[in-house]
Amino acid sequence: xxxxxxxxxxxxxxxxxxxxxxxxxxxxxxxxxxxxxxxxxxxxxxxxxxxxxxxxxxxxxxxxxxxxxxxxxxxxxxxxxxxxxxxxxxxxxxxxxxxxxxxxxxxxxxxxxxxxxxxxxxxxxxxxxxxxxxxxxxxxxxxxxxxxxxxxxxxxxxxxxxxxxxxxxxxxxxxxxxxxxxxxxxxxxxxxxxxxxxxxxxxxxxxxxxxxxxxxxxxxxxxxxxxxxxxxxxxxxxxxxxxxxxxxxxxxxxxxxxxxxxxxxxxxxxxxxxxxxxxxxxxxxxxxxxxxxxxxxxxxxxxxxxxxxxxxxxxxxxxxxxxx
Length: 324
Description:
Low-confidence stretches: none
Number of helices: 14
CATH topology of the largest domain: Rossmann fold
Mean pLDDT: 96
CATH class of the largest domain: Alpha Beta
Helix content: 40-55%
Shape: globular
Strand content: 5-15%
Radius of gyration: 18 Å
Oligomer: single chain
């Protein structure tokens, strides 16, 4: 099914009451820092701590009664797992999530807490393979990005941005598998064609930028970035085409710059984000010389699921080390 503005608007109607309509706030600190009015779309305050329930709910609401009885399955390194588990519990559907053995404990605890069964796998590639096997046994796949209904649910973020800030001119959105940015870009560019959507990845989790450079889908041999929730080993033709057609450019930033941006957001705005969200500020910093006072910058902070253990480790590795 093709992703359209109508499909995203239908998703917005059906998601009412199931997910938060998250705030879009102006940050004077970040506006001064970037040299243009800057706004934060706080999906880190969404249910489960990320945007993922939007797509998960929208996909599962499409299931027939017979399909719901068969249960759903998904592969995830964290946020999609929680989104699917949360939505499935709410809808009375059994959920099985295949996750890498290296998944942080806070993601595992939260996913189990929402009632899902977890199958631990060697890595994310093995998790996708196990998901395919369970799908063959009869479970219904809720893919993290290769699904128009999932992308439509994520695209409701774009509708909310323009409802709150019609003049949004540059919107920075993280890319994992590409469903999130594909949905947002479809929504915003359909309504405001002159708006610029900028995708953001981190080195070591940059399957989309590598695919665009190669002109074909590229699979990463491993995810080496700390931004685990951007860790899709490959994108898909569906999201690749959306990004190629609708996204202005994809900026790739390093882990150190991302962590410094994360702590700047935390210290000055008091919102805890994960690296996969903070990289949007890191990307905007690389382009601030091009901003004008007429711009209205939006940083989509896609999630805030970072453990205190990781937070301390990031600070020691990337922040404290700068001052040694």
